[in-house]
Design brief:
With 1324 residues, this protein is mainly alpha-helical. The chain contains 59 helices and no strands. Helix 1 packs across helix 3. The two termini are 33 Å apart. It is found in: Cytoplasm; Nucleus. One of its GO terms (biological process) is protein transport. InterPro entries: ARM-like, ARM-type_fold, XPO4/7-like.
């Protein structure tokens, strides 16, 4: 034994040996620094298995205080690190060599480490139990004090891992370290000095408790219970060292329970056990249910989780009694208490039933919980825990303990704060308990929620009272107080939010403390808002310097989410609650809703202070990503706040109206100063920012985000204005909305008027204009001419009737059109403003026929149409004379040259979007004026485009002329704008208009094939046209599209596919920009997908007496031609881009599955590229990509089985299928990713095995030899023999019922095969 430490140190400090042969390729560099060399040698020794037990011998030598003279120079820190690495090495080697260790050795080592971790070694040393001079101990070596915590924790962690490894019968060899009977691994075990090491461990620690026999696990928890309970009787012990010893052992015992629960809870992470996922699921299941493993649960059966639950709850009860009896805590109590609370929290957090789920279902569930948030927060413990969890005495005691801990004067604030935080986390877990297994009825749910809510409210009210008293003190004392309370307030508010989400308003409203709860939410919210404003004023708007801003914002967000959950509760929103729900709504309206007014005022004021600071300091704007994140967070916060405001719409509208009345005079005065010169001042910026924030408040309160849905008035707004609520109230509410909308129109008009006169004046804000347009884009489509049958209020009164008449709606429509017209003509380069303008017009046009009729009758909208007719197709460099000449063709509108020149400056893309709006709005067939306007807009595109085409054909214009190229780009965009108008009335007219121009559009590729911008524009145009209208095209239109697309793709491929080089940058921040460079490839792939749809193929294939159809083969030829051109581009670098990858594999998977014979006939180089991409895709992280790839691979294999189509390629490369089979096994089947692609992998596996069964057997042998372990090789061969039967392979390519039966049979067998193989191949 003596000299083990010196030997280990010598090994760790030695340079690695110089490798020879193939091993030199993986050898480490010889210039490693000392730390890197140490870790390399440690890893090498661990991986070697430590056959001489050097780690354990060194540990025993150091613990005994012995060692040779060579170790006397080791410092205390070095000794600590060496001890830690020895324990880590023992864990690694023992778990990896488990089957080769004797039972008694494993038991002894496990219990020895457990005892050392508890601190029993120190006790034996104090008693003098060193048993002579073991290993040189007692011969004058330096004395050793208590072990460092890092070492004791490592010992306990290692012991916990060994308990898990031997908790149940080993999956491979049925070896259990807890039994004394015979076992299958006895032949593998060998003593090789293990009994000697056992004797040394026993000699070093004679007081060590050894847990043996069938009840070893029960004995372990009984021992832990005693150790923890002894600490709570330590007050009777007079000897202070003995008292501290008991408390320390109890703390470490609780820590061990926590570690043990954590080991068994680790379902998805192995932790270096080198065991299969089945082993971890089995351990999880047996720890939760007992030896029955959940399949046959016996009432009263012992299981580890229940034991941990009893241990934690018994310890919690003792802790609560001690703290309440003593009126506070000591530092030792807090350390022990924190560990006990951690155990209870971890036990409650257990994922019940997870071990019985399918692995793929577990991964999907985890992904949904991560994405969905709240659904994964609720806890559903078993029925047998009911008596403990819903015990009123227990709940009350926890809050009394919490109050005692947070006010305890006998310990440091840090220790007190940590224990209080752990108590809050436990209470938060208790707030999440739900399920029929725990609660029998709503009465029990209400009683349980009542205890938690009242306890939480007591603490919050205490905090509020303390801060009121401290407000009279110095500001510094108040700031320090608030800083200490930050985490506590966030946790308490989160607890109330969790209770609201868990028990719903219906149950909470029946509690006696419900009104108190609402009052507390409001009081805490107002206090947090006011304190935030005070802090912002202190730093003069520098929000980055605000103290406590993060926790205040988090707490306010929790309060808003809580109010949002109550306001949106189905029981309140529906009629199910009756009068009871109405009473709750009144309580929410009178108690909680006033918080909305305070929120609006404070939030507005803080934004103004921040804007003043930025304008004064000349601060730079945030970068684009941070601005987007900030705007997203603000929108989310205001949406939650809007739910709060809708609890009392009238009061909320009064607040916003009052704030707007205060802001509006200053804002209008600012606009009046436009044209007087000068720069933007901080005061001006504050006025504009205040107006913008108020607009956001109004927009979120009165409207919802209806992207992808029919715009509608929020139900709460409709209900607030419903006449049945009272004539006076409903009229006041509707009147306040109308008044505020009128004020907003006045502001928008005032700024637009000044923009028309002084567009460059700094007093005029594009951001304010964008916000105004954003508001009208959300408000106008919902409120103008609403359909009463879309609402529960069928009477049609209130706000539904306010804008329901055409004579009232017409001025609003005209106002919106005028606003857009001004910005089109005078701010044409403000992209965000233009985007909102076109969004507003398009939203109105989609509203329906009545609104479209009102738009056409608007003079401003008519002027927009006239402007498009005049200069929509004119280049930006067109002269004023060309503009004046075009004005003579204007359709009856009074246009000035200034207006025309302004509209002419619109970017081409914005002109295209305006054209989309015009086509949709002018699409009513029964309106003569609409038809005239539509035809005029379309002719403004068609006629000049025909002129350009003729000029190019007749060579009157050179194709490389800059003006011609610019015109081509413009017309492509304009035709794209027309194509996107598919939501117009009777959209079949678009294909009728587009079809004659398709040959000319595709013909542009003849002239501009070198210009990638024009190529991409044409591909996008054809893609959008096929996507939008392929279902409504006639046969002739479909054939024309097919012909034009074929020409387009041929010219595109000749210039941009054959010799193009793909570059893939590695920088993450450049990936998006890099992907944009290949949008043309993406558009080409999408176009090919649309051309391959069934509807298009069927329609094209029809023939008539006067018109021949297009054969399906011709269409597939074009698609495969396009695919051949794209294949060389789709390198693995380009396939890293998600969107390109998804569409590419969607196309390839469909075509390979539908027309495998054509792909088998591709030239070898192209076929090899296709096959490599399929092999790349089958292990892709995207399950859809993998499914498409595997289906394609299966189709190729089945086609070869059927027709031997790949024989020519096999003559070039004979191992095509061998490579596919090998990679399928290694990269998919034997990997954890298999679960979300199990079925397609099996359907690819079967035909690949059937192609050449003897070669496949050879591949299986190659794979099995790589496993090393003979037992694993045997099990793998057995699994393959059970999976693949020779008679099954002969029927793989069969059609009809027989083939389907074989595939179904193999599908079930493959599922069993994968589970079996993963049980011993996939190690964690």
């Amino acid at each position: 034994m003596e000299g083990a430490t010196q030997e280990l140190l010598q090994i760790l400090s030695s340079a690695p040996p110089t490798p020879t042969g193939t091993a030199a390729q993986s050898s480490p560099p010889h210039n490693l620094n000392p730390i890197a060399l140490l870790h390399y040698n440690l890893e090498r020794l661990r991986e070697s298995g430590d056959e001489r037990y050097l780690f354990l011998r060194c540990l025993l030598e150091l613990l005994s205080g012995g060692g040779s003279s060579g170790t006397s120079n080791i410092s205390v820190d070095e000794e600590e690190r060496l001890l830690y690495h020895c324990i880590a090495g023992i864990r690694h080697t023992t778990l990896h060599q488990w089957d080769y260790r004797t039972q008694s050795y494993k038991c002894c080592l496990r219990d020895f480490l457990f005892a050392v971790g508890l601190g029993m070694l120190d006790n034996d040393y104090h008693r003098g139990n060193t048993n002579g001079n073991f290993g040189g101990a007692g011969n004058g070596n330096r004395s050793r004090g208590p072990l460092p915590k890092s070492v004791t924790m490592a010992c306990l962690s290692c012991a916990a891992s060994m308990w898990k490894r031997g908790w149940t019968t080993d999956h491979n060899n049925n070896d259990s370290i807890n039994g004394d009977g015979p076992h299958q691994s006895s032949l593998l075990e060998k003593d090789d000095g293990q009994s000697y090491l056992e004797s040394i461990m026993t000699s070093l620690l004679p007081s060590m408790i050894q847990f043996k026999g069938d009840r070893s696990m029960e004995l372990l928890f009984e021992y832990l219970d005693r150790r923890i309970s002894d600490a709570f009787h330590a007050s009777a012990v007079v000897d202070m060292p003995q008292r501290y010893k008991l408390q320390h052992e109890a703390t470490m015992s609780a820590t061990f329970v926590k570690l043990l629960v954590g080991e068994f809870a680790a379902l998805g992470v192995g932790g270096g056990y080198e065991q299969s996922p089945e082993f971890h699921r089995l351990c999880h299941r047996i720890f939760e249910f007992g030896s029955g493993g959940g399949d046959d649960v016996v009432e009263g059966q012992w299981c580890g989780l229940d034991a941990a639950m009893r241990t934690s709850m018994t310890a919690l009860a003792s802790l609560a009694k001690q703290i309440l009896d003593n009126g506070g805590t000591s530092p030792k109590d807090e350390e022990l208490g924190s560990c006990i609370i951690d155990v209870a929290t971890d036990v409650l957090s257990w994922e019940f039933g997870a071990s019985g789920r399918d692995p793929s279902a577990v991964s999907r569930r985890n992904h949904q919980n991560d994405a969905g948030g709240g659904a994964g927060l609720l806890l559903r413990p078993p029925r047998k825990w009911r008596d403990v969890l819903i015990n009123p005495e227990f709940m009350g005691a926890m809050f009394r303990v919490y109050m005692a801990v947070r006010t305890s004067p006998s310990s440091s604030s840090n220790e007190r704060g940590r224990m209080a935080h752990r108590l809050r986390q436990l209470l938060l877990q208790l707030s999440s308990v739900t399920g029929n297994a725990i609660f029998d009825d709503e009465r029990e749910q209400g009683a349980y929620a009542s205890f938690l809510m009242e306890g939480c409210l007591n603490v919050l009210e205490s905090i509020l009272e303390d801060q009121r008293l401290l407000q009279q003190q110095q500001q510094g004392e108040l700031s320090m107080y608030l800083e200490q309370l930050g985490d506590e307030i966030v946790d308490l508010v989160a607890m109330l939010s969790r209770l609201t989400a868990n028990f719903k308003v219906h149950i909470l409203s029946q509690l006696s403390s419900f009104h108190r709860y609402l009052s507390a939410l409001r009081a805490v919210g107002e206090w947090l808002l006011d304190s935030s404003l005070v802090e912002c004023q202190r730093v003069e708007g520098d929000v980055e310097s605000m103290e406590g801003a993060d926790w205040r914002n988090d707490a306010i967000a929790q309060i808003l989410h809580c109010s949002d959950a109550m306001a949106g509760d189905y029981w309140l929103a529906s009629d199910a609650g009756g009068q009871e729900a109405m009473d709750v709504l009144r309580a929410l309206s009178s108690i909680l809703a006033p918080l909305y007014g305070r929120y609006c005022r404070v939030r507005s004021r803080i934004s103004c202070l921040e804007e003043h600071y930025l304008a004064r300091e000349g601060g730079t704007d945030l970068d684009e990503i941070r601005e987007e994140i900030s705007a997203s967070g603000l929108n989310e916060e205001m949406s939650s706040a809007a739910s709060l405001g809708r609890l009392n719409v009238l009061a909320s509208m009064s607040t916003l109206s009052e704030m707007f009345q205060q802001c509006m005079p200053r804002l209008l005065s600012l606009f009046e100063g436009a044209g007087m010169g000068g720069d933007m001042t901080p005061d001006m910026a504050v006025i504009l920012e205040e107006a913008r924030i108020l607009l956001l408040f109004v927009g979120h309160l009165l409207t919802d985000d209806c992207v992808g849905e029919t715009p509608s008035i929020p139900e709460s707004i409709v209900n607030a204005c419903r006449p049945s609520r009272g004539v006076e109230t409903s009229e006041s509410c509707a009147s306040s909305i109308v008044t505020l909308i009128g004020a907003l129109q006045s502001v928008a008009e005032a700024q637009a008027t000044k923009v028309a006169a002084y567009p460059a004046d700094p007093r005029l804000s594009p951001l304010l204009a964008k916000t105004l347009l954003w508001f009208f884009c959300r408000w106008a489509p919902a409120y103008i001419l609403p359909t009463s049958d879309e609402y529960s209020d069928t009477t049609g009164g209130g706000i539904l009737s306010t804008y329901s008449k055409p004579e009232i709606a017409q001025p609003v429509i005209s106002f919106c059109s005028t606003l857009c017209l001004v910005y089109f003509c005078h701010w044409p380069q403000e992209k965000e403003v233009q985007d909102e303008c076109t969004s507003l017009l398009l939203a109105l046009a989609k509203k329906g026929a009545f609104v479209r009729g009102l738009m056409v009758n608007s003079p401003s909208f008519e002027k927009i149409a006239a402007l498009h007719s005049v200069c929509g197709s004119l280049r930006h460099n067109a002269s004023q004379q060309e503009l004046s000449s075009a004005m003579t063709t204007a359709m009856g509108a009074d246009l000035s040259i200034d207006v025309v020149m302004g509209y002419h400056r619109l970017p081409y893309a914005e002109r295209a979007r305006v054209l989309t709006c015009l086509v949709v709005a002018c699409s009513e067939m029964h309106c003569e004026k609409s038809i005239v306007m539509l035809n005029s807009c379309l002719r403004a595109v068609e006629a000049p485009f025909s002129t350009l085409v003729q000029a190019l054909l007749n060579k009157q214009v050179r194709s490389d002329d800059a003006n011609a190229q610019e015109s081509a780009c413009l017309f492509i965009l304009l035709y794209g704008g027309i194509v996107l108008a598919s939501e117009m009335s009777e959209p079949e007219r678009i294909p009728h208009f587009i079809t004659p121009s398709l040959p000319h559009l595709s013909g542009l590729m003849t002239y501009y094939a070198e210009d990638l911008t024009i190529c991409e524009g044409l591909l996008r145009l054809f893609r959008d046209y096929a996507e939008q209208y392929i279902a409504m095209m006639t046969r002739e239109q479909s054939i024309e599209l097919f012909t034009a697309s074929a020409t387009l793709l041929r010219h595109y491929s000749e210039r941009h596919c054959k010799n193009r080089v793909i570059h893939k940058r590695s920088e993450v921040e450049e990936e998006f920009d890099e992907e944009q460079k290949y949008n043309d490839v993406l558009c080409a792939i999408q176009l090919l997908i649309h051309l391959g749809t069934k509807d298009f193929t069927v329609v094209c294939n029809m023939s008539t007496s006067s018109f021949n159809g297009v054969e399906t083969g011709q269409i597939t030829d074009v698609i495969f031609f396009g695919l051949q051109q794209v294949l060389p581009l789709m390198t693995q670098g380009l396939l890293q881009f998600p969107t390109l990858c998804q569409y590419y594999f969607s196309l390839v998977g469909f075509m390979v599955e539908t027309y495998p014979e054509k792909l088998c006939g591709l030239p070898f180089d192209l076929f090899n590229s296709l096959l490599e991409s399929l092999l790349f895709g089958m292990s892709h992280s995207d399950a859809l990509v993998a499914k498409s790839s595997l289906q394609g691979l299966a189709s190729l294999a089945r086609e070869h089985l059927r027709s031997q189509a790949l024989l020519p390629h096999l003559s070039t490369k004979a191992d095509i299928f061998d490579n596919c089979s090998y990679r399928l096994m290694k990269e998919v089947v034997f990997q954890p990713i298999i679960w979300d692609r199990l079925e397609p992998a099996g359907m690819a596996f079967l035909p690949l095995a059937a192609i050449d069964f003897q070669k496949f057997i050879g591949l299986v042998n190659v794979v099995s030899q790589q496993l090393g372990c003979g037992e694993k090789q045997r099990r793998l061969h057995t699994a393959f023999e059970e999976l693949i039967k020779p008679d099954m392979l002969s029927k793989v390519a069969a059609e009809g019922r027989e083939g389907r039966f074989v595939r179904l049979q193999f599908k079930n067998a493959f599922n069993v095969f994968v589970r079996d193989v993963h049980s011993f191949l996939v190690m964690r």
